[in-house]
Write a structure and sequence with these properties.
Order of helices and strands: EEEHEEEHHEEHHHHHHHH
Number of strands: 8
Strand content: 5-15%
Number of helices: 11
Shape: globular
Strand order of the largest sheet: 1-2-3-5-4
CATH class of the largest domain: Mainly Alpha
Number of domains: 2
Largest sheet: 5 strands, antiparallel
CATH architecture of the largest domain: Orthogonal Bundle
CATH superfamily of the largest domain: Transferase(Phosphotransferase) domain 1
Helix content: 25-40%
């Protein structure tokens, strides 16, 4: 992403970049710095239905470099106007979120044919990778470390739910798409909530929730799928379902459309985690079941309340998971972790 003449973002052949000093007068209040560096696209990290994510280097003067991730969305083609608006909204929402357990967003930009978001690159795996690796090894997930993951995600979620802008307005952020793929775990042992692409706030355009549903069906709250609107406790429900999958190895609702989920919610009771997996302590099982109560008034009142319940569980169970110990465990679990842990 090194020049306005390029139409499409992608890797370039290696070349040396020289960034000239364009500051003709001193930097100070009111001054707009228009040349703060460039980005070298290194390789494709992944792609989905709407766009691509690249590993990139931010380039500065005096051989300064910093690894970033660049998320790209075409302006034309199969991408709808609503998709483009959500992409822009994601950058605007995340730009103000500054928390160690939320993936940081640094810039929203565009070329002639694409929008791009520059964000923190997390060297690690998704929570889904973590779950599937344990299933592959036929190894039970460690209770202490796995609860630790959830407490950190809840910390980031509580911050997002309570975020105010610089004018003091409560933004009313609801993530609406919490799932195992949207929880990242760095090889340093730091969990991070990602992808606020369908989040709603008071300051961004949000389609009428009585007409449109957002998120992934297996993790949607009842009020979400019934088009009654979402709020922070809807995110708590979704995270509860993620916890259920984490500790039992089963998806609570194996569904892929609205009708299937509504029928599942009305006709089938979820087996408590300690019954689905005898290794799950009953006190932890109760916390999960409270989070996924069908009536939102029966759930935890906030992400902080749920985090405190989990931390109390750890203390009563004499479990004291630490970030460094968790990172050591990830090195045992994933062969590549030892290499990237110290990057």
């Amino acid at each position: 992403m090194t020049g306005s003449h390029r139409h499409t973002i992608g890797p370039l052949a290696p070349k040396k970049f020289r960034l000239s000093d364009l500051f003709r007068r001193s930097i100070g209040p009111g001054r707009v710095i228009r040349s703060a560096g460039a980005y070298r696209i290194l390789r494709l990290l992944g792609k989905g239905g709407m766009g691509r994510v690249y590993l990139a280097e931010k380039l500065g003067t005096h051989e300064f470099t910093k690894l970033m991730a660049v998320k790209v969305l075409p302006k034309q083609g199969l991408v709808s106007a609503a998709d483009r608006q959500m992409f822009v909204n994601e950058a605007r929402v995340c730009a103000g979120l500054n928390h160690p357990n939320i993936v940081q967003v640094y810039q929203l930009g565009e070329t002639r044919s694409e929008y791009f978001i520059v964000m923190e690159h997390v060297f690690g795996v998704t929570l889904l990778d973590y779950i599937e690796r344990h299933l592959e090894l036929q190894k039970p997930v460690p209770i202490g470390f796995s609860v630790y993951i959830m407490t950190r995600v809840l910390s980031g979620l509580h911050y997002a739910h309570n975020k105010h802008n610089r004018d003091g307005l409560h933004l009313g952020i609801v993530h609406r798409d919490i799932c195992p793929n949207n929880v990242l775990i760095s090889y340093r042992g730091i969990p991070k909530l990602s992808d606020f692409g369908v989040a709603k706030t008071k300051l961004t355009f949000v389609e009428d929730e009585t007409k449109v549903v957002f998120g992934k069906y297996p993790y949607m709250a009842p009020e979400q799928i019934k088009r009654k609107g979402t709020e922070p406790r809807s995110d708590i429900y979704s995270l509860g379902l993620v916890m259920y999958e984490l500790f039992t190895g089963r998806i609570a609702h194996e569904v892929n459309d609205t009708k299937m989920l509504l029928e599942d919610l009305e006709q089938r009771e979820i087996l408590p985690p300690h019954e689905a997996n005898p290794l799950v302590p009953i006190d932890l099982s109760k916390i999960i079941m409270k989070a996924i109560a069908l009536d939102r008034d029966d759930r935890f009142k906030s992400a902080k309340a749920m985090r405190l319940a989990l931390e109390t569980f750890l203390l009563k169970s004499f479990m004291f998971p630490e970030q460094d110990d968790f990172a050591d465990y990830l090195c045992e679990l994933f062969p590549q972790a030892a290499k990237h842990r110290w990057w």
